[in-house]
Design a protein that fits this description.
- The complex is a heterodimer of chains A (233) and B (377).
- Helices cover 33% and strands 28% of the residues of chain A.
- Chain A contains seven helices and eleven strands.
- Chain B starts with a helix and ends in an 8-residue tail after the last helix.
- In chain B, helix 2 packs antiparallel against helix 9, helix 2 packs antiparallel against helix 12 and helix 9 runs parallel beside helix 12.
- At the A-B interface, helix 2 and helix 3 of A face helix 1, helix 10 and helix 11 of B.
- Bound molecules: adenosine-5'-triphosphate and magnesium ion.
């Protein structure tokens, strides 16, 4: 139980647009642990990003409760959640979401600046993070000058630079060739072993070899998590 | 924060240039119109403004008017009567009279004669408004002053000792003033007897009785005393007479209204152009603002980021507008438009700039503050 990072209790997300009601996520109970790499898989539109956004405290559930490190964060206000995201969670978004006016380096510096770290120190750490994803020669490029794979790696560096406890990645390898994808997955796997909770949304079946657990989502229904060993049986 | 705002600004060059242009145009327009208005207001009050007014002075005029440029004559005997009041040290009669001045090489123009006793010349003009000659030269008969900046409208070249005619009688320019213009007819300073001679005003009439007091602290009581003792007269603090004059002219000529409307419209249009451009550039960057929120920036931080951009636009636009305004000042200085950009005025314009820019940015802030961090997916 000590390893528990996030716990969802009866969490449900319903979108109401006009007359149509979409249950993006049906009642879900789920526990995510540190030292583990968890995959979330499922068809397009099944609710993976929705699930990830609730885990990442970006959206409020329609009902149910969300616990972060055993604190009920369901009733946190926007600022409290922003603080939690800033200090505890690293995000790699499906569309990278780099900040367009900022260079690769500045993008990676931004979360640290939000944390009010010393600027010199920030520059140093951000540079290191970009070097470790192999982008040492692209520090001062704006996102529009970067390829999809490079953007994805900047996004990964930005997510990891704050040394977050919970790492959430929405299709982190979609734009990468298999060699870079493998490298990134090894890195994420390494982070999980070092004590982080790593959650990855993917369509890529090949990533299962890195996973401790795999969760399936279908039309908003989350299957019980499957231990990978069991899955292969 | 400003650093980040600056990067956003640089990234959207076209929109940034649009916003800055809007700031520059509205602030330059407001600055130009107001400085012109202040200049004209100065001219309106120049009968007071040209005089070396001291703290212990009270100006007494006929009661019907509040405008020093539209005086009725009062009885010369009152000069003595007021002088006999215990708090009064001296009285100086002054004649203000309309006349026609003819320049032999130019044209005929309406002027206002300002006659005061030599050698005091209580009505000035101030030394700082003299270009050539000195007031002592006006003691001689048939000598008058003329305004350097009026020469162009008179179609003549002003020079010392230039012979001219006033109401058909010959006179000589012995003093050239500069920046001593009036709002209407140009002011010509001279000895009071010369003024009577040229204007045919009877010796029993005066226009103003400039009254000096032994003690400036008795000013209010003396004013009250004169007003009660002489029901046809009104005593003024000269500074109040100047502002009352300006107010009268602004209202009667509708100038206050028309300048005011222009300034208000420049402000409103600046406000909306800036507001809408900022709004549309915020929409362009909406994904970035959402991302900032998603990675942990507070609502407040993102709002400040937008306001910081507006602030930068304001500062840049203000600097350019002030440079243009300064250029305008330099451009018109030779035609006698002495535009004054005082620190207070500059500060006032800065506040207006900040008001319209930051005010305009609130449209964008309103939009972005409602933005949910999840909207970036
Ligand atoms: N803000 C929203 N408003 C209304 N409906 C939404 C919203 N966000 C998601 N949905 C709906 O919820 C469902 C789940 O969406 P979600 O983005 O979680 O799917 P996904 O599994 O991530 O798909 P993909 O693999 O294509 O990324 C979809 O039907 C989607 O249309
Ligand atoms: Mg998705």
């Amino acid at each position: 139980m000590d390893n528990e990072i996030v716990r969802l209790e009866g969490v449900e997300k319903i979108y109401q647009t006009g007359d149509t009601t979409i249950t993006a996520l049906a009642k879900t109970n789920l526990t995510l642990e540190s030292h583990k790499l968890t995959l979330i898989m499922g068809p397009s539109g099944s609710g993976k990003t929705t699930l990830l956004s609730i885990i990442g405290c970006i959206i409020y559930p329609t009902s149910g409760r969300v616990f972060y490190k055993n604190n009920n964060v369901t009733n946190y206000n926007e600022n409290q959640l922003a603080y939690l995201r800033l200090h505890e969670i690293g995000f790699v978004f499906q569309q990278f979401n780099l900040i367009e006016p900022l260079t690769a380096l500045e993008n990676v510096m931004q979360p640290l600046l939000l944390q009010k770290e010393e600027r010199e120190n920030v520059r140093e750490r951000a540079t290191q993070a970009l070097l470790s994803v192999g982008l040492g020669d692209r520090l001062h490029n704006l996102p529009k000058k970067l390829s999809g794979g490079q953007k994805q790696r900047v996004a990964i560096a930005r997510a990891l630079v704050t040394n977050p406890t919970l790492i959430l990645c929405d299709e982190p390898t979609a734009s990468l060739d298999s060699k870079s994808a493998r490298e990134i997955m090894l890195e994420l796997k390494q982070l999980a072993s070092s004590g982080k909770a790593v959650i990855i949304v993917t369509h890529d079946l090949r990533l299962r070899e890195f996973a401790d657990y795999t969760i399936y989502v279908e039309e908003g229904h989350v299957s019980t998590e499957i231990k990978n060993e069991e899955y292969y049986k | 924060m400003l650093r980040l705002a600056w990067k956003f600004l640089k990234f959207d060059k076209a929109k940034s240039i649009g916003v800055i242009t809007a700031v520059v145009i509205s602030i330059f327009l407001i600055g130009q119109q107001l400085s012109l208005l202040f200049f004209l207001m100065g001219l309106m009050g120049n009968l007071v403004g040209n005089a070396p007014v001291r703290d212990n002075e009270v100006w007494v005029i006929e009661k019907q008017t509040n405008n020093v440029n539209a005086l009725n004559y009062i009885d010369q005997r009152l000069v003595q009567e007021i002088a006999s009041l215990p708090t009064v040290s001296n009285t100086y009669p002054v004649i203000i009279a309309p006349a026609q001045a003819t320049f032999l090489d130019g044209q005929t123009a309406g002027v206002t004669l300002v006659g005061a006793q030599a050698p005091t010349f209580i009505m000035g003009p101030l030394k700082s408004r003299l270009k050539e000659g000195s007031t002592t030269q006006l003691i001689q008969p048939y000598t008058v002053s003329a305004e350097f900046y009026s020469a162009k409208t008179w179609n003549t070249n002003l020079e010392m000792n230039k012979p001219i005619e006033i109401n058909g009688k010959s006179a000589q320019v012995k003093l050239i003033t500069q920046n001593a213009q009036a709002f209407g007819a140009s002011l010509m300073y001279m000895d009071i007897n010369n003024a009577r001679y040229y204007s045919n005003i009877s010796p029993s009439k005066v226009s103003i009785i400039v009254t000096t007091l032994h003690d400036k602290n008795t000013k209010n009581s003396t004013i009250n005393q004169i007003n009660t003792l002489f029901p046809n007269l009104k005593a003024w603090d000269p500074e109040k007479l100047r502002s009352s004059t300006i107010k009268e002219i602004l209202i009667s000529s509708n100038m206050g209204m028309s300048f005011g409307t222009l300034v208000v419209f420049a402000m409103i249009s600046g406000f909306f152009i800036i507001g809408l451009t900022l709004y549309s550039s915020a929409l362009d960057r909406i994904k970035d603002y959402g991302t900032l929120k998603a990675i942990g920036a507070t609502k407040n931080y993102v709002n400040k980021l937008i306001i910081a951009q507006a602030f930068l636009y304001a500062i840049i636009g203000y600097i350019i507008a002030m440079i243009l305004l300064y250029g305008f000042k330099m451009g018109v200085i030779n035609s006698g438009l002495a535009i004054d950009i005082s620190p207070t005025f500059a500060l006032f314009l800065l506040l207006i700039t900040l008001f319209i820019s930051i005010g305009g940015s609130l449209f964008a802030v309103r939009k972005i503050t409602k933005l949910e961090p999840a909207s970036v997916f």
